């Protein structure tokens, strides 16, 4: 009698889907974990920070009494964080603060580019951003006549637009005056120190009158002693004669020493009145 032939088993061609489904599941779980790690809960960090301050500032006897009370009530308390965890928390918070500050400064720089667009097209103004803040460098020829500290009428509308933008932000603003090394000796400006400081004060006064709080401004004059280019060529000397308006980042503003805005405004007003008349002596480019 012939032996019954065993039927052939059907080959499963879809077994690969089992491994594929496992892989997709693991990949999904991986991204869920990564997303949860990336979310920083500031509320929990503040609670942790307060608990650490309490732990380090409370006497040992008080801590023992609190622990005994906790045991008697049957409540559970979480263990305090380690110093490494506290340091990591501070680093994360500082990094986030710096990122937020950089984004704010980027918006400020964009607004300043719009306000200074006419002078930028003429090559008289440059706007840069760094960790210190947003710096607006304006050539003196766009603001002042030779050897004078009174603002030219054509420069006033542009500076007023800058002052209106500054009124919308809380940052400190430092205005710095620079000159070249050409000597000056007039009754009003015996040296480049007085000229650079008076020019910075004139800019501060106009910005403050445009709506920004006066106490936020600092006027500084460096004279000829911080050149940005060589003084051996006319082009270099022209580059060295400028006024820089720096919108300070928060950490930089804390490090700066505030100046008396009222004194700067008074000095600028007196200088402006005096320089409207013709000044005898050497002229300053």
Tell me what you see in this structure.
It is a single chain. The chain is α+β, with helices and mostly antiparallel strands and about 280 residues long. Helix content is about 50%, strand content about 10%. It has ten helices and five strands; from the N terminus they run H-H-H-H-H-E-E-H-E-H-E-H-E-H-H. It has helices spanning about 15-40, 40-55, 60-75, 85-115, 115-120, 155-165, 190-210, 235-240, 250-255, 260-275, and strands at about 125-130, 135-140, 175-180, 215-225, 240-250. A five-stranded mixed beta sheet has the order 1-2-5-3-4. Strand 3 (about 175-180), helix 7 and strand 4 (about 215-225) form a beta-alpha-beta unit. Helix 4 (about 85-115) runs antiparallel to helix 6 (about 155-165), helix 6 crosses helix 7 and helix 7 crosses helix 10. It starts with 15 loop residues before the first helix and ends in a 10-residue tail after the last helix.
């Amino acid at each position: 009698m012939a032996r019954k032939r065993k039927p052939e088993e059907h080959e499963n061609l879809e077994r690969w889907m089992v491994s594929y489904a496992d892989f997709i599941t693991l990949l999904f779980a991986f991204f869920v974990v990564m997303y949860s790690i990336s979310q920083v809960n500031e509320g929990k960090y503040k609670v942790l920070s307060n608990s650490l301050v309490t732990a380090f500032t409370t006497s040992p006897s008080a801590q023992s009494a609190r622990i005994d009370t906790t045991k008697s009530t049957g409540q559970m308390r979480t263990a305090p964080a380690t110093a490494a965890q506290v340091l990591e928390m501070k680093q994360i918070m500082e990094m986030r603060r710096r990122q937020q500050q950089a984004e704010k400064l980027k918006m400020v720089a964009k607004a300043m580019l719009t306000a200074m667009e006419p002078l930028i097209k003429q090559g008289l103004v440059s706007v840069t951003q760094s960790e210190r803040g947003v710096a607006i460098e304006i050539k003196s020829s766009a603001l002042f006549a030779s050897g004078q500290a009174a603002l030219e009428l054509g420069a006033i509308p542009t500076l007023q637009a800058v002052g209106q933008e500054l009124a919308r932000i809380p940052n400190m603003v430092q205005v710095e005056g620079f000159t070249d090394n050409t000597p000056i000796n007039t009754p009003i400006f015996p040296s480049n120190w007085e000229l650079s400081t008076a020019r910075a004060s004139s800019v501060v006064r106009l910005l403050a009158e445009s709506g920004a709080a006066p106490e936020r401004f600092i006027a500084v004059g460096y004279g000829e002693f911080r050149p940005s280019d060589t003084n051996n060529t006319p082009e270099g000397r022209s580059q060295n004669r400028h006024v820089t308006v720096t919108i300070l980042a928060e950490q930089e503003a804390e490090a700066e020493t505030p100046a008396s805005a009222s004194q700067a405004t008074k000095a600028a007003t007196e200088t402006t009145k005096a320089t409207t008349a013709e000044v005898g002596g050497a002229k300053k480019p």
